[in-house]
Amino acid sequence: MSSRSTPHAAAADAPRAEHGAPGLAHRVPDLGALQLLLAVARLGSLGGAARETGVSQPAASGRIRSMERQLGVTLLERSPRGSRLTEAGALVTDWARRIVESAEAFDAGVSALRDQRDSRLRVAASMTIAEYLLPGWLIALRTSRPGTAVSLRVGNSAAVAGLLADGQADLGFVEGLGTPSGLDGVVIAHDRLFVVAAPGHPWARRRGPLAPAELAGTRLVLRETGSGTRQVLDRALAGHGGLAPPLLELASTTAVKAAAVSGAGPAVVSELAVGEELAARRLVRVPVEGVELSRALRAVWPRGARPAGPARDLLSLTRARR
């Protein structure tokens, strides 16, 4: 029995087979060298190939010599009339062409995947941001990325966090107390909550500010639990007896404003949402002392997955326009 067929020899061969893949990188020239060789074969000139591939002629000559040493065969015959392939060089060139074509196909496939990713953007935003800030950002994004299709889902801050956690959105915007669990984020703006009432409400005619306990003990027109507005209000009034049960609990800022304007009761809404109503005196701002009603607005995304492509561009736009 020959030594090659013994169990000991087979065992000895196993580590070499196991470690064969890393050695391949040392035996196969890099793509740049193979592309240079293909250019020499096509042009019949090392100088012409150097110009085409963007390197100097000495660098191209050195690269060919290095490849010859790496492969252990002579690839080119050089003469004053130019360079031509040896028989071994012609065979290596045919193999090199397949490698380069495969690499180009690989690059084209990855580019197609990247283009597919970059051609769409899924955004989830809480109500106030979606209504009063996001439209301007999306108009600016359309200018810089006209081919990007944007889909928008709107909900409260808890719903936005859920969409991102489930992989149903690429970038989100929330208004709560902090970055939701499992997400990364950055503050993009700051906002204040205003207590507002219709001009006919007693609070609209009072001379002094509200005390926190009075605000906490009054039934208000409010956004639903899970909204950023509600989170901030709950925290602000926790030390003053807690928030009374809502007079009305509504799922959008527009609905809250409409109820307050109709005289249903005082409400708490974002400063961003009531500029027009305050200017027209359809609503009156009611000052409150001794309580913090400000909040940060945040862009958020799945933890560890930094925004890329159009999501990154939209994030940049929000921060540039603060």
From TrEMBL:
GO terms for molecular function: DNA-binding transcription factor activity; transcription cis-regulatory region binding. Residues 1-24 are annotated as: Disordered. Belongs to the LysR transcriptional regulatory family. The keyword Kinase does not apply. Keywords: DNA-binding, Transcription, Transcription regulation. Signal peptide: none annotated. Residues 29-86 form the HTH lysR-type domain. This is LysR family transcriptional regulator.
